[in-house]
C-alpha cells in the first residue's frame, strides 16, 4: 500500500485535526484494513499528549472547533490534578467520536510516552500510521505481512484483553497467531 491509496477524505480530516492538534496521526486498524482490502469500521486518529498538558475542557474546545457534532465516548481523569499514573499502562485521556460524510472518526487522546507510538501497539499488524505526509510501519508489522503470523507485542502492558486479539484473528483468517498468544494469562496492551 502507498499513501495514494489513503482516501482523500481521511487525509482532509487529519489535516483539519492537525490544524488544532498538530501531533495527530491516523494509526492502527483502519490503515491495517485498508492495506488488506478489508471492511473498515472507523478511522482512529491518535493525539499523543504529555500528561501534564491534559486539560479536558481545552480538549473539548479543540474537538468542537474541528467538528461541533462530536460525541464524547470516554474520559479518563488521569493526568488531572491528584491522579496517579499506573506503571506499564498507556493512558487514554479521552475519546471523541464524529461521523462526517458517512465516515466514523475517533479522536483518541493518548499519553505521549516519548517513543514511536506504533511500536507500542499490542498487535503486530496494527503497527501502522500515517502522519499526513508519510506512511509508517514497524518492523513487526512488515514481519507479519511477510510471514503471515500475527504477533502479540509489548506483553509488559496489561490494559487490554485476549478477546481483542481474537477479534483480529477472526477478521484475518489468512493469518496464523503466534503460539501461546491466545492464552488467557498473557497480559498485553
How would you characterize the overall build of this protein?
By secondary structure, the chain is of the alpha+beta class. It has one domain: Beta Polymerase, domain 2 (2-Layer Sandwich). The protein has five helices and nine strands, in the order H-E-H-E-H-E-E-E-E-E-H-E-H-E. It has helices at 8-20, 29-35, 56-66, 139-147, 162-171, and strands at residues 25-27, 43-49, 71-75, 92-100, 103-111, 128-130, 135-137, 149-150, 176-177. Strand 8 (149-150), helix 5 (162-171) and strand 9 (176-177) form a beta-alpha-beta unit. Helix 1 packs across helix 3 (56-66).
Overall, the morphology is globular
Structural classification:
alpha+beta
Into how many domains do the coordinates divide? 1
Rounded average pLDDT: 84
Structure described in brief:
By secondary structure, the protein is of the alpha+beta class. It has one domain: Beta Polymerase, domain 2. The protein has helices spanning 8-20, 29-35, 56-66, 139-147, 162-171, and strands spanning 25-27, 43-49, 71-75, 92-100, 103-111, 128-130, 135-137, 149-150, 176-177.
Amino acid at each position: 500500500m502507498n499513501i495514494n491509496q489513503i482516501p482523500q477524505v481521511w487525509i482532509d480530516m487529519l489535516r483539519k485535526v492537525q490544524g488544532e492538534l498538530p501531533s495527530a496521526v491516523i494509526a492502527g486498524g483502519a490503515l491495517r484494513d485498508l492495506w488488506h482490502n478489508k471492511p473498515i469500521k472507523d478511522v482512529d486518529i491518535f493525539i499523543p499528549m504529555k500528561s501534564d498538558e491534559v486539560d479536558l475542557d481545552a480538549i473539548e474546545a479543540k474537538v468542537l472547533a474541528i467538528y461541533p457534532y462530536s460525541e464524547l465516548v470516554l474520559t479518563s481523569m488521569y493526568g488531572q490534578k491528584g491522579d496517579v499514573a499506573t506503571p506499564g499502562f498507556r493512558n487514554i485521556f479521552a475519546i471523541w467520536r464524529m461521523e462526517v460524510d458517512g465516515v466514523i472518526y475517533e479522536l483518541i487522546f493518548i499519553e505521549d510516552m516519548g517513543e514511536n507510538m506504533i511500536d507500542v501497539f499490542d498487535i503486530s499488524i496494527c503497527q501502522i500510521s500515517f502522519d499526513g505526509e508519510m506512511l509508517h510501519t514497524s518492523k513487526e508489522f512488515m514481519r507479519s505481512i511477510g510471514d503471515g503470523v500475527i504477533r502479540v507485542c509489548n506483553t509488559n502492558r496489561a490494559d487490554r484483553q485476549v478477546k481483542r486479539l481474537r477479534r483480529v484473528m477472526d477478521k484475518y483468517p489468512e493469518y496464523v497467531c503466534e503460539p501461546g498468544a491466545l492464552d488467557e494469562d498473557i497480559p498485553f496492551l
